[in-house]
Amino acid sequence: AQTVTQSQPEMSVQEAETVTLSCTYDTSESDYYLFWYKQPPSRQMILVIRQEAYKQQNATENRFSVNFQKAAKSFSLKISDSQLGDAAMYFCAYRSERSGGTSYGKLTFGQGTILTVHP
Amino acid sequence: GAVVSQHPSRVICKSGTSVKIECRSLDFQATTMFWYRQFPKQSLMLMATSNEGSKATYEQGVEKDKFLINHASLTLSTLTVTSAHPEDSSFYICSASSTYEQYFGPGTRLTVT
């Protein structure tokens, strides 16, 4: 079974600074997706960024970028120029792409990291 | 992105009664939907996978007779908490799966008194 570990229960950053959230995962599969989701106080889950395992290039979305190290099974999220609206709980998630498997399409979440942004 | 709705957003019920939560994918057909439970400041715990036209697949430790899931159409899945007890109070989230990602509903806060 796959596992996802976020070792930072809480992080804080000053507005306009950069912060990196850590995520490691364990899998024996070669085809999978990795995601970062944001859950603000409204509790609506919002997709921040997606990475396909077969792509070597790190995904980026505006101020959000990842450092995907497949061999090390590491998938960290970097938030640049942090804004007050970035304050939320962030979840790293894994999704198997093994077609027909019972776990197909299911997301495995990490424990989450609460990010506080100080003005 | 695609929109998933949940109804109701909040519900309070008395112990021993049942409550139904609806999850709808508004602008796409979802053959697979997922139901999660989340406690404050904790991660999402997958309860079950709901496939249109077939029985739901429950995760280990989830009581299938207590949490009834029905996926009657490609746009609607329902979760019924039967004979609810205070320990069932939680935040319930559904999601609908597409090829590349899951789209999440806004969640339902259930309080059992």
Task: Describe the fold and architecture.
The complex is a heterodimer of chains A (119) and B (113). Chain A is globular and about 45 Å long. In chain A, the strands form three sheets. In chain A, strands 2, 5, 6, 10, 11 and 12 form a six-stranded mixed beta sheet that branches. Chain A has no helices and twelve strands. The model of chain A has no long low-confidence stretch (mean pLDDT 93). Chain A has strands at residues 3-5, 10-14, 19-21, 24-26, 32-39, 46-52, 60-61, 64-69, 74-79, 88-96, 107-109, 113-118. In chain B, 0% of the residues lie in helices and 54% in strands. Chain B contains no helices and eleven strands. In chain B, the strands form two sheets. In chain B, strands 2, 4, 5, 6, 9, 10 and 11 form a seven-stranded mixed beta sheet that branches. In chain B, strands 1-3-8-7 form a four-stranded antiparallel beta sheet, with no helix packed on it. Chain B is globular and about 40 Å long. The mean pLDDT of chain B is 93. The chains are: A mainly beta (119), B mainly beta (113).
DSSP helix count of chain B?
A: 0
Number of helices of chain A: 0
Strand proportion of chain B:
over 45%
Q: Mean pLDDT of chain A, rounded to whole units?
A: 93
